[in-house]
Amino acid sequence: MDGVLWYLLASSRGGPTRVRIVRALNERPRNANQLATELDMDYTTIRHHLDVLLDNNVVRTAGGDYGTMYLFSDQVTANWSTVEEILETVDPEEP
Q1: Is the Cβ–Cβ distance between 52 and 20 less than 8 Å?
Q2: HTH arsR-type domain spans which residues (predicted)?
Q3: What is the distance between the alpha carbons of residues 31 and 7, in angstroms, rounded to a whole number?
Q4: pLDDT band at residue 95 under the 50/70/90 scheme
Q5: For 5-34, how does the pLDDT look when each residue is reduced to its tens digit (9 = 90+)?
Q6: Nearest partner of 36 among 60, 15, 17, judged by Cα
Q7: Strand 30-31 vs strand 59-62: parallel, antiparallel, or unpaired?
Q8: DSSP label at 73?
Q9: How far, in Å, CA of 54 to CA of 72, rounded?
Q10: Which pLDDT does position 63 carry in this prediction?
Q11: Residue 20, φ and ψ in degrees, nearest 5
């Protein structure tokens, strides 16, 4: 999981956006619309990055269709020290 997290958050082109999503979800679970509003980003962009995070078992969903909330997966929670290390490494101001 460490390698996946480093790749998705620090090495790939979409990493800065996914870092912003991870930081927002760390505050509290949110749905895609709430994330788009809070991060001032297009909803479809947010959904794309959430799908990438879902496909790689970084986040999981709870709830129904429109109100689907995104939370961290158990694997990410177990590897939270790696997430913290990545968040300290990447530029926090990167859009």
Answers
A1: no
A2: 13-92
A3: 24
A4: very low
A5: 999 999 888 999 999 999 999 999 999 999
A6: 17
A7: unpaired
A8: -
A9: 9
A10: 85
A11: -60, -40
